[in-house]
Please model this.
Amino acid sequence: MPDSPVAGSRKEAAVQALAAVPNVPGAPKPDPILVADHVMRRFGGLTAVDVDHVEIQRGAITALIGPNGAGKTTFFNLLTGFDTPDSGSWLFNGKDLAGIPAYRVARMGMVRTFQLTKALSRMKVIENMRLGSTGQTGERLWASMLPFTWRKQEREITSRADALLERFNLLAKREDFAGSLSGGQRKLLEMARALMSGPEMVMLDEPMAGVNPALTQSLLQHIKDLREQGMTVLFVEHDMDMVRDISDWVIVMAQGRVIAEGPPEDVMKDSAVIDAYLGGHHDKALTASGVSFTEEDPA
Amino acid sequence: MDWSFIISTTLLAAFGIEAIVFGLAAIGLNLQFGYTGLLNFGQSAFLAVAAYSLATLVSQMGFSFWIGIVVGILAAVLLALLLGVPTLRLRADYLAIVTIAAAEIVRLLLRSVTLKEWFGGSDGINDFSRGFYDLNPIAIGRYTIGPISLSQDQLFIIIVGWCLVALALLVTWLLVRSPWGRVLKGIREDEDAVRSLGKNVYLYKMQALIIGGVLGCLGGFVYALGRQAVNPDFFGTDSTFFAYAILILGGAARVFGPVLGAIIFWALIQGSDVILRSLIDAGVPVVSLMTASQAAIIRFILVGAGLMILMIYRPQGILGDRKELALDAR
Model:
């Protein structure tokens, strides 16, 4: 994990790097970490995802938004190896990920969380965290029966886990079963657990879903912290206010395709985006009267 | 009523061949089902391939005892691979369907007339255990432990059996307290989450299936050597479900759960049988309306009702943790 510089500097760097990028779907980025080309996924007759070209800027927070059924989560699953596209290619750090199973994608430095939080209920919080660490000797069958081969590494993993739990305000829950945590705490645990592997890129599927407003702010701050520590974040979200607050770049999907891209302020004025959310023939007088869709709850 | 007979029969059941065989089968299931969440409904097939490898190789083909044991263990590994390769990438219920069918296929093959020359058909095989009992260092005679009296051979197989149980428990204990065991528990909770953390879930499930199968197959050896005979119909679905009942009774995902479960289960099964028979012999009203063979069936009803009551008041099993069970599954 790169050392964290002065707070805020990475945000400026990300905004600056993206300043010259044109606001068109599939725009090339100066330093893409993830590039997807012609990724298509069909479920029977339904084309869930049909993305011609999209690039994700390294070190930035990119939001993936779109109305329900736009194919955001499916696209997420395709990128992380949890689903296989019918065609297309996608590169992470220049490496082709086609045919790479999900667990290897995670080991390469791209970890994800889930829309429906997957806390491992009947395991303690600290065990959840320890599980997140990759490359453990004790996870090999033969070595596992010889504790002296993995004790030292286990201690190192535990201290790293404790540090993360402290940062995510979960240290008091260390010995509790993950199943006893609240919805928001589970989201925090899932994020902290994903960080145990020291990823380069973190993919968050609806990190705010089901989180109470009090926790939302702290969750947002944690996402910003990821960027400050040099990680790239791609997240799916419905809530426009959150998106505007934390993202450096927004990609809008509708009906499986990328329909708009740009900085949050510009994207929210984009007529294609408004059409996608409110329908093509929405009442023009409504926007003219100053009620912009960003103040509506799109979900 | 002859209390010493009731007590000695019950104790022999609780610590004898049956408890060892089903204890080992349940220890294997515990690793597969209790820790990893794999629904293996064909545990009896793992016992069957081990028992029959030993019996067939020694009796029909003239190989030595040790070759029979090694081939039996390899056969269990092979069976696990055969079941796991096509199903472990799929949802959990596919493994359940495939294993229950495979176990019946194994049993029907073993009792088939066509293969009678190899497996002895429905009569089974019964002349293969000499090699094992030749290893017996215990002097010929009868040995009395409390109310139980055993021959030197019975004593030998019981000692060897409990040593195998101890070994299987040690292996399980070492495995489940390690990071490897942590991955298994993670898979039981949510395999996609574990996958997203960079673990090769398929490999871990396969390892758990193989190790659980091999631990279970030790029960097959003990059964074959203890009875000095193998019979195909012992390896039916009943045996698998006995092993599940034992595991759940003792407490799944607890190292000692299967052993405690096996002891209690067989004590109840045999104890209720001898008590009912004694009551019939004593001419106790109502009870003596039934015959001894009816009593043998009634005891299963009693034990079944007992298990139901246990599940209502202690769903986590004897050693289980109620708190753990109270959590919502996801």
User: Anything to note?
Assistant: The CA atoms of residues 170 and 255 of chain B lie 9 Å apart. Residues 201-227 of chain B form the longest helix (27 residues).
